[in-house]
Every structure is written in structure tokens, then in C-alpha cells.
Amino acid sequence: MASKPLTISPGTAQSPVDPALRNSIYSALLDSNGLLSIAATLEHELATSGFTSNLKSYITHLLRSGECTTLDEIHSRVFDKLNHQQSGGANGVNGSNGVNGINGKDGDDEYDLHISERTVREGVKSVRKELEHVCDITVDGEDK
What we know:
The structure is a single chain. This protein is mostly helical. The chain folds into 2 domains: 1-49 and 117-144, no CATH class; 52-114, no CATH class. Helices cover 56% and strands 7% of the residues. The chain has 6 helices and 4 strands. The chain has helices spanning 10-14, 19-31, 34-48, 51-64, 71-86, 117-134, and strands spanning 6-8, 98-99, 102-103, 135-137. A two-stranded parallel sheet has the order 1-4. Strands 2-3 form a two-stranded antiparallel ribbon. Strand 2 (98-99) and strand 3 (102-103) form a beta hairpin. The longest helix has 18 residues, at 117-134. It is elongated and about 50 Å long. Mean pLDDT is 82; it is low at 91-105.
């Protein structure tokens, strides 16, 4: 663990972080096992919410249906679906009428890859907790 906490101003936290500062934070988090703790929290919350299972099912569907045959295709489809659902889209509905847009529903509709608010909230709490071990964090208008 770093002997002296890093100090980051609110302005620095809002702008792109200088690579040297970012590397110092990463090093401190690695030394304190903070990254492992953050990863464990996120993994637990994603599994608890059903996201991990849904993701596995969706990828299996993409492969078995022949819609995707490469890792790059799977990656692209999963991130497209995630972005669509997180931005308020309805479970991957593409506005068409069917399986691949014809008379019915899209085959992706049954796979919910929405990341729950609880998962996000717990992830943020975990990141903040670990950062507080290695950085001095001050937020405008908030008592520490």
C-alpha cells in the first residue's frame, strides 16, 4: 500500500486523468488488493442480479443460431445490446416485426442484459471505498 495517500481535486477527478496519476492509482490499488475487491463485488452483484446467467445464455444463443461465429461478432452484438438496453431500449427490440425483423419478435428479446441499478450502486460504493484507502477524496458540498 502507498505510504502516503494521493490527493485528487474535484477538478482533476472530472477531467481526463494524467497518465502518471492514473498509474499511481492503479499501483496503489494493486498493492492494497483493491482491484481484486472491486472485481469480486462486481462479479457477485452481476451474478446475483442474473446478468451473468443471461449473458451466458445470450452468447450461447448467438453461437447456436449461427448469428455469430467469431469472438468479434459476439463482442459487437453483446455491446450493441447492452448499449441499447442501458439507454432505455426495450430488451433489444429493433422496431421491426419479427425474428430478425419479420412478423413476430426479434430472437434477442428474451435475453435481458440490463445492468441493475443495485449492481451499479454497489459497484460505485466498492470503487469509492477502495479509492478512499489510497486517495484523499473530497467532493464539493460533501462532508467526509
